[in-house]
Amino acid sequence: MLHLRRRVPKGSNDLGGKGLKKILTGNMAVSYGVMLSRVEVIAAYPITPQTPIVEKLSEWIAEGNLQAKFIHVESEHSAMASVAAASMAGARTFTATSSQGLALMHEVLHWASGSRLPIVMANANRALGAPWNLWNDQTDSLAQRDTGWLQIYCETNQECLDSVIQAYKIAETLSLPVMIVLDGFFLSHTEEPVEIPDQELVDQFLPRREAAIQLDPQHPHVFNIITPPQAFTKMRQDGQKAMDMAPMIAAEADTEFRKIFRRGYDLVEMTGPENPDLILITMGSAASTIREVLGERQHEETRVGLMRIRMFRPFPSEIVRRILQGIKKVAVIDRGFAIGTGGVLSQELKAALFGMDAPPSLYQFVTGVGGMDITPGLIKEMINICLRSQESSKEIIWIGADQ
Amino acid sequence: MAANRSRFQIPFISMSQEGTLDQKTGMWGRMRPFLLERLAPCQKGCPAGIPIPKALKYLQEKEFDEAIRCIREENPFPGITGRVCFHPCEENCNRKYFDQAVSIRSLERFFSQFPLPKSQPRETNGKNVAVIGSGPAGLSCSYYLALFGYRIILLEAEKKLGGMLRFGIPRYRLPGDILDREIENLLSLGIEPITDKRIGKDLLFEQVYQDHDAVFIATGAWNSLKIDIPGEESFGIVPALDLLKEINRGKKPILGKNVLVIGGGNSALDAARVSLRMGSQVRILYRRSRQEMPAFPEEVEEAEEEGINILYLTSPVGIRTRDGKMTGLECLRNRLTEPGKDGRAIPVAIPNSNHLLEADTLVTAVGESPDLSFLYPEVRLKGEEIEIGTKVLEKVFIGGDLLPQPRTVIHAIQSGKEGAMRIDQYLRYGKRFEKAPWTSVSAYQRSEAEAQGPAVRFEDLNMSYFDHQDRADQMKFPPYRRKGNFAEISQTLTEGEAAREGNRCFQCGVCTVCENCYIFCPDFVVSIGEKVTIDYEHCKGCCICVEECPRGAMTSEVKV
């Protein structure tokens, strides 16, 4: 179970694969994932830090390297509406956004999931204003947790690329939309070596989309007409059933992915010693910094582990409960915070732990919002707080903020 | 039971069980949109009805051969009109309300460079027609009659063909080799030219009349009118047309240092600019103001660029002479009063405004009239007929400047074309039309109905689909390089310029299958084949297609 310093996952090069390695930003990695997935329709509106994703895609389309239609739109609302319509017509679709752009899409996000459209969207995290802020903060995507979208949070640029390809497989199996989330700037604008999978292998993993129901001008139907309460409820139940299957489908997709590409990602990733005294829980790129800290303190007496939640929606409650069985202390490092709600991941975790026999003591840290860097120093500070304390905290513990 | 249950099974997403085509939504609407291609204002404004949008469409598709073919169908001399036409097409171009009119004339000149596959005349029908006069009207009439299958004899009094094109238009506007090339194209149809034979002198009109099934007369207006002031017979007074003719024959008439030109028409401008090129100082006198000047504005501008002074509101009253030679011109100043019958303000002399302009040469360009005295002494023009006494000459048709119409090249070409159609009707069916019922010869040949109705207006177009773009004009040599020579002053557009200019055409009233109606129709009732068709069973009549048609090719009506 101990595999530290895995910031760059082992590429298939070591294992006999023939993929090409490039130095890419997270944004570029997403673009490659989209191209390899043979997406047919893209609509997007620029917003920092997402913009390079769709810029690159539009270049590829203009150069003829990607056979897709790029729709220019005047807002994110229209971007989502356009890809929803294209998806309804049977196309494999993609868009990307950040922050206020995602917030503007909110209404159509419901429309996409309610229509059971397998859209894949990348969200490069950025704080929601006011006040204006360009930097990383997961509140924007976490605020969309109730829109019926799956959410996958990436730790590395390689994972960004791979997750896009996996996301289409999952979305099209479940007929539900998937959001790939990457930390703004920490991933979106930072370069790492990334292996570009072979197109043939990707095609093998991800065949053409076959839509169960699609628009056909020759045989027109009305879609999403006003629906009576019983039928409406039935459709919500259907959606929930699909969502319930999501962890299983995602795990199956990952197993198949591992077979072909010799790498993969658990929905909940554990790192560190067996039976730790404390488990730090987080999402996204902060996990890599935590791994560094855990590596440094390998030989210390108190054992600290890391749980990285990769799939946030649906929340993998069962897996989390199984792992946390018998653990004494848990610290959530939340990069998503809402006034009045507190740390969003803490809320989800608390809901998942409800009714558990002897649940662990919970420490709710909020740090790294509005672009703040979660440094090894801050992580050590949080570990020390947890280890020194006898009781769990009922209140938010703010770390790194000016007093 | 099972079937029953499946009928009520709730689908995966909210979706109508029945296809929406069963709903005949077409019954809901009050309006009915439809495709109605209409005349573009350029084509409507062209006296010869050249299908300009069609030609420019071919240009946009880079099919130059097709473009020139459809122009030559209605105008056999694009190389000539592409240089000297007064381009009413451009005056009518809708684009001028958006930025500037499309340079249609420059494009016509561009097209004229492309060689035409030689048109095959129809089998000779055995009938002979004599055409008297080889100006634009006579040439055009010969061309179309030859195409219809007639044997043509083209009679010309001068040594070379071309009439006013050759002798009235200065070479810097229409180079001789261009004219020769256009005429050669025409003669290749099997027309027999007889030059240097003047009717009434070398040939008898009676003979020509008897020997042919029909005669087309287009001898033009060559008689210069007199200004009717004392001293007009002195040395140094020359009619404009005589001057132009001399110079176009390649001679170098001796002009004075100080030339005055009287008149405000194109002949006056031509004479002035020619004199300037001969090395004289030139001033033009015109009795009204610039606004009333009948010359084409472009010519006036070019003349001024070249340094010609125009003295407006000035009338001559007498010529001063010494030893029979002109030394000066006594003039009066005018003021303008209310417009007269022709809509132009009438000039009235201001008393005691006499002044003297020193000059040694006076060129008169106050108008020309036709002279048919070579036919019979008592011949008379009556509208489009020729009468001798009270007898109409039945086999005779006339064209060009003999007709009461504007004296322009394109009007002359059209009159030749119409003459050919009238002669064809006369010789084939014995019908003698006073006026040709067709404008388009291709419609006439194919017995098709001609495009009718009002032209597309600017308000009918949707400007959201067009970007502003500057007009490509022909490169013109600067004035200092125009002096002292008769080289053409402008250059043909390059292929790149022509392609860009062609793309500026709105294609008013033409369906270019841009698919806007299809894209915008919220009900999917528009389908695109070669043109647009609408499924009226389901069209609710919102008419977005009409609104979004960039070119005014869609129209709507209230359903009955």
Write the layout of secondary structure elements.
The complex is a heterodimer of chains A (403) and B (560).
Chain A: E1 20-25, H1 26-36, E2 41-44, H2 51-63, E3 69-72, H3 76-88, E4 93-97, H4 99-114, E5 120-124, H5 139-142, E6 150-153, H6 157-174, E7 178-182, E8 191-196, H7 199-205, H8 229-261, E9 268-271, E10 278-282, H9 286-296, E11 304-309, E12 311-313, H10 317-324, E13 329-334, E14 337-338, E15 342-343, H11 344-353, E16 361-366, H12 376-388, E17 396-398
Parallel strand pairs in A: 2-3, 2-4, 4-5, 5-7, 6-7, 10-11, 10-13, 13-16, 16-17
Antiparallel strand pairs in A: 1-8, 6-12, 9-11, 14-15
Helix pairs in contact in A: 1-2, 1-6, 3-4, 6-8, 10-11
Chain B: H1 2-8, E1 31-35, H2 41-45, H3 52-60, H4 64-74, H5 78-84, H6 88-92, H7 104-111, E2 128-132, H8 136-148, E3 151-155, H9 164-167, H10 176-187, E4 192-194, H11 205-211, E5 214-217, E6 223-224, E7 237-239, H12 240-248, E8 258-262, H13 266-277, E9 281-285, H14 297-305, E10 309-311, E11 314-322, E12 325-339, E13 345-349, E14 355-358, E15 361-364, E16 368-369, E17 379-382, E18 385-388, E19 391-392, E20 396-398, H15 409-429, H16 441-445, H17 479-482, H18 495-503, H19 516-520, E21 526-528, E22 532-534, H20 544-548, E23 554-558
Parallel strand pairs in B: 2-3, 2-5, 3-4, 5-20, 7-15, 8-9, 8-15, 9-10
Antiparallel strand pairs in B: 1-23, 6-16, 11-12, 12-13, 12-14, 17-18, 18-19, 21-22
Helix pairs in contact in B: 3-4, 3-18, 5-7, 8-15, 12-13
